[in-house]
Specification:
By secondary structure, the chain is α/β, with parallel strands linked by helices. The chain is built from nine helices and eleven strands.
């Protein structure tokens, strides 16, 4: 019923106006879709491509292991598409990328519902490594009622100054290509920087009110030189302060088992096995801490999610079908 390769219309990217389409790859459980089959995003790294063999293999593995429809999404700026040009076209860093992934879930849900196929939308998960870890944190933020568990493996934190401008802060090697100049097309406003911080304290309070049982599993090497662990530790601390109980593993040599974890640096190891080692208990149907949301989630609510920021607010709208995001300036 669900084709493995699909494509859908995405929200327009201001740096390249016009219709934008996003591809995704789906894998279904070999046993078929049951009333308890959930949904799971399987998200690639910065610059990765959705249908690389290992991502397809991960989708197949997770579909069976967790009884989910697993989907890999070719979100904005994947695989060399829509290239990053510092000072002109910066890296999206989880803004429209997260909306792309949420639209992928919307389209899968709609196909299932239109066909009258029962599934379990309360069992909704996401995992990703590096850029995919960041996008997993952002879908969790943009759809705060929706995800029971997300697994962030060495994911980028928010747009810290070091990553946004490539200053090398804390040893980071990343440069998202933003500008401090308000007249630049790549200007990073305080409002956007606040929104794209998964550890923003007041936003976490709103997320906790929406879904206090939400579980974030963090697996991050202490010797990561691409995404320094110090920023992820801050996110962890702020989650705890907001009331969440994230399951964090900041990797030292003790964690290296040669199978799942092979390094305390950015690669971490075999990221599919990392999910199994640290999140099986939450994701497996029979797991000792198996998670699902009490419901309803954001797609069912068909309303808006609001995040106040400097100078206005961001709106993530589920009321018109596929989710969209925009900024509204504060009234004077």
């Amino acid at each position: 019923m669900l084709e493995n390769e699909q494509e859908f219309i995405a929200q327009e990217w201001p740096f390249q106006p016009g219709e934008r389409r996003v591809k995704m790859h789906l894998e279904l459980p070999a046993a078929g879709i049951s009333a308890n089959t959930g949904l799971m995003l399987v998200l690639h790294n910065w610059g990765g491509r959705y249908n690389e063999p290992h991502y397809v293999a991960w989708c197949r593995r997770f579909a069976d292991r967790y009884n989910v429809i697993a989907v890999s999404v070719n979100y904005l700026q994947s695989g060399g598409g829509e290239p990053v040009i510092p000072g002109e076209k910066p890296y999206d860093h989880g803004y429209l990328q997260a909306i792309d992934c949420l639209r992928a879930l919307y389209h899968i849900r709609r196909q299932l519902q239109d066909a009258g196929v029962k599934f379990n939308p309360r069992r909704c998960y996401s995992m990703g490594g590096s850029g995919g870890g960041n996008v997993s944190l952002m879908v969790n933020k943009f759809a705060p009622h929706t995800f029971a568990c997300v697994v962030d493996i060495c994911g980028m934190p928010g747009l810290t100054d070091g990553i946004a401008y490539g200053t090398g802060e804390c040893g980071s090697q990343l440069n998202a290509g933003y500008s401090r100049d308000p007249s630049s097309p790549a200007y990073l406003s305080p409002a956007r920087q606040e929104l794209l911080d998964p550890g923003h304290p007041s936003h976490l309070v709103l997320q906790y009110a929406a879904n206090p049982a939400n579980k974030v599993v963090i697996v991050h090497g202490l010797d990561d030189t691409s995404c320094p662990a110090i920023h992820k530790i801050t996110i962890f601390r702020n989650m705890v302060a907001a009331g969440f109980r994230p399951d964090a593993h900041f990797l030292t040599p003790w964690h290296v088992d040669g199978e799942a974890v092979t390094t305390t640096g950015h690669p971490v190891g075999n990221r599919d096995r990392v999910v199994e080692r640290f999140a099986d208990c939450y994701l497996r149907e029979e797991g000792e801490a198996a998670l699902q949301i009490p419901g309803p989630e954001d797609f069912e609510r068909a309303s808006q999610v609001i995040y106040p920021v400097t100078g206005g607010r961001y709106v993530i709208d589920y009321s018109q079908g596929p989710p969209s995001i925009w900024f509204e300036e504060a009234e004077e």
